[in-house]
């Protein structure tokens, strides 16, 4: 463990050691391969969605699919920020991460994660307008407005990540330097601070937990209105199509938000379940997103078939 001393003779850490996920030593090779496969499939699946949306002229101008493409892009980067570090923990390589690297990882994770939260909310709003306000939908949600809303989500996510990283690492860290987690996240890092973390835990609770819970409630409210509108559709085929379109989004939202709220609305928790729950929304969700949207969306499946044939959607 490297340390430096400042003018006040206070010892300051220059690196951390990520202890990773608890696992039996004899399963290291197996777990490494599992996460390697997950990472590769996540990148390929989300890249395929991006290519499909980008190359199909009927998809890349529609707000629903613009949002889906942005989600795939975020999933690719979120997986890249987290999964390689998990894989490293199953190898003999050093588990050390430099202080600056820890800051960058925490910022990147919360930037990408919060942007996803806002994006899921926008996707729910888009579906609400499409189903509950179909006649006004082209005016209320067009490509330009969708792009502006996505840009706003990125800016808000960046600000959120910067606030969390700044508040976390302005605290003094003087040892020990072992982070009992698989990446640099706020609750695990704060346990190593050589100062009172009450304010940080309160900010984490409000800025992450409450914001995530608020977005989740807005999404549920949107879908409550959507379900009511769908039930008014007279034809069974119309109801099935509307439910199919929204079902995939609601599935992804539930898989993402419930574990996230479980982690951040319990400040100071040291439950062994936290690591397993965090793996679900940091590793599994980016893998599931392209599968769920592909399997439950006829337009995406049709565009994928055209892409596989090497043909153009305009033919």
TrEMBL record:
<protein>
    <recommendedName>
        <fullName>G-protein coupled receptors family 1 profile domain-containing protein</fullName>
    </recommendedName>
</protein>
<dbReference type="GO" id="GO:0004984">
    <property type="term" value="F:olfactory receptor activity"/>
</dbReference>
<keyword id="KW-1133">Transmembrane helix</keyword>
<dbReference type="InterPro" id="IPR000725">
    <property type="entry name" value="Olfact_rcpt"/>
</dbReference>
<keyword id="KW-0552">Olfaction</keyword>
<keyword id="KW-0716">Sensory transduction</keyword>
<feature type="transmembrane region" description="Helical">
    <location>
        <begin position="145"/>
        <end position="163"/>
    </location>
</feature>
<keyword id="KW-0807">Transducer</keyword>
<feature type="transmembrane region" description="Helical">
    <location>
        <begin position="107"/>
        <end position="125"/>
    </location>
</feature>
<dbReference type="InterPro" id="IPR000276">
    <property type="entry name" value="GPCR_Rhodpsn"/>
</dbReference>
<feature type="transmembrane region" description="Helical">
    <location>
        <begin position="243"/>
        <end position="265"/>
    </location>
</feature>
<keyword id="KW-0812">Transmembrane</keyword>
<dbReference type="InterPro" id="IPR017452">
    <property type="entry name" value="GPCR_Rhodpsn_7TM"/>
</dbReference>
<feature type="transmembrane region" description="Helical">
    <location>
        <begin position="277"/>
        <end position="295"/>
    </location>
</feature>
<feature type="transmembrane region" description="Helical">
    <location>
        <begin position="65"/>
        <end position="87"/>
    </location>
</feature>
<dbReference type="GO" id="GO:0004930">
    <property type="term" value="F:G protein-coupled receptor activity"/>
</dbReference>
<dbReference type="GO" id="GO:0005886">
    <property type="term" value="C:plasma membrane"/>
</dbReference>
<feature type="transmembrane region" description="Helical">
    <location>
        <begin position="208"/>
        <end position="231"/>
    </location>
</feature>
<dbReference type="Pfam" id="PF13853">
    <property type="entry name" value="7tm_4"/>
</dbReference>
<feature type="domain" description="G-protein coupled receptors family 1 profile">
    <location>
        <begin position="45"/>
        <end position="293"/>
    </location>
</feature>
<feature type="transmembrane region" description="Helical">
    <location>
        <begin position="30"/>
        <end position="53"/>
    </location>
</feature>
<keyword id="KW-0472">Membrane</keyword>
<keyword id="KW-1003">Cell membrane</keyword>
């Amino acid at each position: 463990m490297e340390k430096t001393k400042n003018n006040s003779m206070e010892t300051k850490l220059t690196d951390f050691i990520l202890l990773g996920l608890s696992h039996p030593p004899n399963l290291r090779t197996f777990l490494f391969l599992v996460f390697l496969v997950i990472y590769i499939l996540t990148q390929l699946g989300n890249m395929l969605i991006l290519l499909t949306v980008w190359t199909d002229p009927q998809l890349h101008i529609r707000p629903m699919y613009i949002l889906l493409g942005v989600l795939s892009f975020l999933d690719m980067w979120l997986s890249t920020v987290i999964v390689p570090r998990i894989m490293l923990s199953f190898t003999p390589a050093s588990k050390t991460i430099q202080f600056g690297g820890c800051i960058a990882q925490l910022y990147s994770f919360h930037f990408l994660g919060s942007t996803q939260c806002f994006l899921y909310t926008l996707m729910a709003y888009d579906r609400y307008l499409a189903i509950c306000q179909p006649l006004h939908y082209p005016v209320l949600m067009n490509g330009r407005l969708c792009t502006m809303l996505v840009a706003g989500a990125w800016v808000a996510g960046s600000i959120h990540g910067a606030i969390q990283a700044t508040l976390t690492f302005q605290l003094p860290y003087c040892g020990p330097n072992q982070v009992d987690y698989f990446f640099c996240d706020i609750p695990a890092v704060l346990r190593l601070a050589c100062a009172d973390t009450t304010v940080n835990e309160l900010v984490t609770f409000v800025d992450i937990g409450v914001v995530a819970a608020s977005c989740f409630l807005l999404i549920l409210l949107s879908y409550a209105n959507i379900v009511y509108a769908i039930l008014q559709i007279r034809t069974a085929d119309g109801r099935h199509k509307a439910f199919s379109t929204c079902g995939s989004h609601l599935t992804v939202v539930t898989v993402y938000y419930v574990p996230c709220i479980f982690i951040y609305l319990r400040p100071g928790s040291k439950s062994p379940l936290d690591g397993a729950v965090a793996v679900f929304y940091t590793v599994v969700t980016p893998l599931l997103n392209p599968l769920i949207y592909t399997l439950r969306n006829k337009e995406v499946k049709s565009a994928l078939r055209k892409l596989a044939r090497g043909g153009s959607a305009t033919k």
